[in-house]
Amino acid sequence: MHSTHHHSLPPCLIIAGPTASGKSAVAVELALQINGEIINADAFQLYEGMDICTAKPTAEEQRGVPHHLLGVLPVSESCDAQRFRDLALEAIADVLSRGHWPIIVGGSGLYLKALTHGLAPLPPVDEALRAELTTLSKEERIARLLALDPEAETTVALANDRYVSRALEVCILSGQPQSVLRRSWAERQVPEFMGVLLQRERDELYSRINQRVLDMASAGLAAEIAALAELSDTAGKAIGVREIRSHLAGEGSLAAAVETMQLNSRHYAKRQTTWFRRETGFQTICLASDSTRDFAARRILEIFPCLYRPPQSAPSSST
Q1: Residue ranges of the alpha helices (H) in 35-190?
Q2: Nearest alpha carbon to residue 16 among 111, 116, 118, 105
Q3: Where is pLDDT greater, at 186 or 5?
Q4: Cβ proximity of 300 and 101 under 8 Å
Q5: Disulfide: which of 84, 120, 170, 174 matches 185 by Cβ 3.0-4.6 Å?
Q6: Cα distance between residue 58 and residue 283, in whole Å
Q7: Which residues, listed in sequence order, are joined to residue 102 by a DSSP beta bridge?
């Protein structure tokens, strides 16, 4: 088991924020100043072959700073918060072993939370129960879940059958509502971590998003999506996949697909902003259109002056 009640993260800095807020450029600038290495915490940049679609920093943008967990999974594989946490903790230990600062960069709130808070101690999958639940209809599964956990109406995406089935399993196996389990976990964990949240004015963020999607299209986005093999349902959720595929299937122009991608990316940024607003523990840095990455790096060093010194690795406790 990874998580103990006193979950603490090894020394590292987290740079979070919505899509197109400028996280990668700021992280690279900071890494150059403090001897840092970057660990990706974007759920989609973990996949290989999706560089344009996921706005993966190019070799030029990486400026010689070592980057980890970029393009490490084949698109056919699923990923979840637990798997990300395992990969990230391994990468953090690797960076610390060189005496460098791990800088974790991304906008996937759930993955970052798995890292900062550990994961809720949910019961493992029970194959017999899973088989039994598949004999029910979708509607019956939802009805059973709501009977056991009325709060699931708001805490579970009921349109997603996989989430419904898992939440129902958790209720049955643990003998209590899954929302209660998750909440008691969240309340018990008040982790300490070094994290900054990059924020921009909404209009500016949206115009950065719109421009980024246009840049993707001219960088060969359609060809990249066309070349992708069979996607897992995790990889298939990356913005751009569905929009470009429908264009490639003859439904609508590339310009229309780009417009839909811009809209979906703006909605995604809005959800990320809402998510991070609820997360305590991050220091907020507001960036203006003329803020340089050097300005942001300096602000981070003012907030966390310990970054000027090499990280003190905690004594390794074998778990």
Answers
A1: 59-62, 81-97, 109-117, 127-134, 138-148, 152-155, 161-174, 178-188
A2: 105
A3: 186
A4: no
A5: 120
A6: 27
A7: 37
- Note the pLDDT of residue 155: 83
Helical residues (DSSP H) of 279-315, grouped into ranges: 293-303
Query: Within 10 Å of residue 155's Cβ, how many Cβ atoms?
Result: 16
Bridge-based pairing state of the strands 13-16 and 194-200 = parallel
Q: Where do runs of H (alpha helix) occur along 160-292?
A: 161-174, 178-188, 202-218, 221-226, 241-248, 254-278
> In whole angstroms, what is the distance from residue 70 CA to residue 126 CA?
33
Amino acid, single-letter form, for residue 185 = W
CA gap 196, 282 in Å, rounded: 5
Residues 6+ apart with CB under 8 A from 253: 247
Beta-bridged to residue 104, according to DSSP, are 14, 39
- Distance of alpha carbon 93 from alpha carbon 12, whole angstroms: 10
CB atoms inside a 10 Å sphere around CB 275:
17
In contact, 36 and 134? CB cutoff 8 Å: no
- The region of weakest confidence among 43-47, 190-194, 268-272, 305-309 is 190-194
Q: Which residue has the tokens 């395992």?
A: 86
pTM summary value: 0.81
Q: What is the DSSP letter of 132?
A: H
Round to whole Å and give the CA distance between 298 and 291.
Answer: 11
Q: How confident is the model at residue 176 (pLDDT cuts 50, 70, 90)?
A: confident
Q: Which two tokens stand for residue 144?
A: 């059973």
**For residue 313, what is the DSSP state?**
P
Kindly report the backbone phi and psi dihedral angles of residue 315, in degrees, each rounded to the nearest multiple of 5, phi listed first: -55, 135
> For residue 220, what is the DSSP state?
T
Cα separation of 283 and 198, whole Å? 9
